[in-house]
Specification:
The protein has 15 helices and 25 strands. It is of the alpha/beta class and 574 residues long. It has an eight-stranded mixed β-sheet with strand order 7-6-5-3-2-1-19-20. A six-stranded mixed β-sheet has the order 8-9-10-11-12-18. The chain has a five-stranded parallel β-sheet with strand order 14-15-13-16-17, sandwiched between helices. A hairpin with an 8-residue loop joins strand 1 and strand 2. Bound molecules: zinc ion (2 copies). The site of one zinc ion has 5 residues, from helix 2. One zinc ion binds next to helix 2.
């Protein structure tokens, strides 16, 4: 079993956290103990600037949850102070919580580039009751005065979605750099491009640099997107039949490139998956995908073309159960059945935890005769997150006085902090590793983790409800998943307290009752004993009886089987 406190409760230690003099507070509400749920804030006096509002996908410890969003109770309490919500880029781990939290925090102005704005606005449409959003469109290179004490200047970064931005936040204690998520972009000769952005930052006396830690465990440099493109093109040329490419709908840069290559090779592109279709449409509308009108054909028309003239783009390279690639592999797709000669390209890395699903996916596809290529066989994927050497180069170019590793699990952030200590000769106290909810106080000459914390315990979204999946529900789901359940239906005469018939016993995921008749008989006897011991001639409190049954039957089952299924007594009084 995975040992992790799935509900972390950090409470206010003081009613309010006072900021005295020239101190800027940095607090992350999410993103520092996980991948996802990115949301952080800077506070000075009565002004708060928020960066990102993302969601986190569920883990094994949170079964049945759609996703987790940041806890914004601190911001709700202080919503009058909020001056801006800045969004670095359009990935869901940075924008996904907006529809759920924006009203709670007073619907502040959202600063975003045009494509990011478009993705946020599209998603907001799925929430008819959510308020209209107030956007301020920004561009790389522009500045904004956000409030009396905060000014921001944006710069462009390469990630794997267009128009990602980083920023320099000018505060009363100095300049803070948050580059969003990025990696280096390389030219055909393998030279990193646009390094002057970082070098310019290095001339500005940067107080603190925050850097994404997602790639901090990866040695070396990123695989150049140019190499990815070259390898994809080679594969596409080699393919004799149809090509089916699975990737993330959010990898817009890659998708654009694939469509371009297909077009160049005289292949028509068909898109399967609504998220991917929407994203492509947004990118085309905003001029990010300059392809001929007829480069993309409707999926239902692929039969009209020769197999070697067709490339299908779809979601689900991670083996996600409801995604298009899985439907194809299962033979459940309306328009696409795998046939011999198809080439399947999985152009994304495998997210930890998805290894098994991806394995099954590859097995199923190859059994049906498809040729499969994935990123481990050829360089057909590059992560969007700078690995070690790129992180170190940025540190050295920006030359900050302090360094805060952000985004990612503790070990990734610890690794990033050690890189900074190495590259910048900083002391550990100058590279604080803060957890979600901890308050970091930044003053002109020092940074210090404060004693105070703000709440960051999980807020879960399940179906359409927000925050309604509490500890109890999660515990129940885990018990059901691991131990199964036993339902006992007892029909009792209200007046005498006597059984009217043998109790019914139903079990799921526990033991197979039909093959354990003796055991069932023993269990029945046990149930009767429990009832028999209750003093007669008095009304049976059904709640009392239920809890008695739950405890004693639970105890009995554990003694016999060493398992603790969920016991659900149902008492019918007639
Ligand atoms: Zn991202
Ligand atoms: Zn991210």
């Amino acid at each position: 079993m995975i040992k992790k406190t799935y509900l972390k409760r950090t409470e206010f230690k003081k009613e309010d956290i006072s900021v005295s003099g020239e101190t800027v507070k940095f607090i992350a509400l999410g993103g520092l103990e996980e991948i996802g749920r990115n949301m952080m804030l800077f506070e000075y006096g009565d002004e708060i600037i928020i960066i990102d509002a993302g969601l986190q996908f569920p883990e094994e410890t949170t079964p049945g949850i759609d996703f987790i969003i940041p806890n914004v109770s601190y911001l709700e309490k202080n919503k009058k102070k909020i001056k801006a919500l800045i969004i670095t880029h359009g990935h869901y781990d940075h924008i996904g919580a907006i529809p759920y939290i924006i009203e709670k925090i007073g619907n502040p102005t959202i600063y975003a580039t045009s494509i990011t704005k478009e993705i946020i606005a599209r998603r907001q449409e799925e929430f008819p009751n959510a308020p209209k959003l107030d956007f301020e469109i920004i561009k790389a290179g522009e500045s904004r005065q956000l409030s009396k004490n905060f000014t921001v200047r944006f710069f462009g970064v390469t990630h794997n979605i267009p128009e990602g931005v980083g920023m320099v936040l000018e505060t009363p204690i100095g300049k803070i750099v948050h580059p969003g998520e990025f990696k280096f972009d390389y030219d055909i000769d393998g030279n990193a491009k646009d390094l002057d952005i970082w070098e310019n930052l290095g001339k500005q006396k940067i107080h603190t640099l925050l850097l994404d830690s997602t790639g901090a465990e990866e040695p070396g440099f990123s695989v150049s997107e140019r190499i990815v493109e070259r390898e994809l093109e080679k594969l596409f040329k080699k393919a004799e039949g149809r090509i089916i490419v699975g990737t993330f709908a959010s990898l817009l840069d890659r998708i654009a490139e694939i469509i371009k290559i297909a077009d160049r090779l005289g292949k028509k592109v068909a898109v399967s998956g609504s998220s991917m279709k929407t994203n492509i449409q947004i990118a085309r509308n905003l001029g990010y995908m300059k392809v001929e009108k007829d480069a993309i054909v409707p999926l239902e028309e692929i039969g009209k073309y020769r197999d070697d003239k067709i490339l299908i783009l779809c979601t689900g390279a991670q083996g996600e159960p409801n995604a298009q690639m899985m439907k194809i592999a299962n033979g459940e797709h309306r328009y696409i059945q795998i046939k011999k000669g198809d080439t399947v390209v999985l152009s994304s890395s495998v997210i930890p935890g998805n290894e098994r699903s991806v394995q099954i996916l590859k097995d199923d596809l190859s059994r049906q005769g498809a040729l499969i290529y994935h990123y481990k066989m050829v360089d057909i994927h590059s992560s969007g997150h700078a690995p070690q050497e790129e992180l170190k180069s940025v540190m050295k170019m920006v030359k900050p006085n302090f360094f805060i590793p952000i985004h990612g699990y503790y070990f990734m952030r610890w690794r990033n902090a050690s890189l900074a200590q190495e590259a910048l000769k900083l002391k550990p106290e100058e590279t604080p590793i803060v957890d979600n909810g901890q308050v970091l106080l930044l003053s002109k000459n020092s940074v210090k983790i404060s004693e105070e914390t703000v709440p960051t315990y999980y807020v879960m979204v399940d179906g359409l409800g927000v925050g309604d999946v509490g500890e109890v529900v999660l515990r129940d789901r885990r018990v059901l998943a691991q131990e199964g359940m036993v339902v006992i239906i007892a029909t009792i005469d209200r007046r005498t307290g006597q059984f009217l018939k043998n109790p019914d016993i139903i079990s799921r995921g526990f033991i197979y009752l039909k093959e354990n008749k003796e055991f069932v008989e023993e269990l029945r006897k046990k149930i009767k004993q429990i009832i028999a011991r209750i003093p007669r001639a008095q009304q049976i409190e059904s709640d009392y009886l239920k809890s008695l049954m739950r405890d004693q039957v639970g105890e009995f089952l554990y003694r016999k089987t060493k398992r603790r299924p969920m016991v659900l007594p149902v008492i019918i009084e007639v």
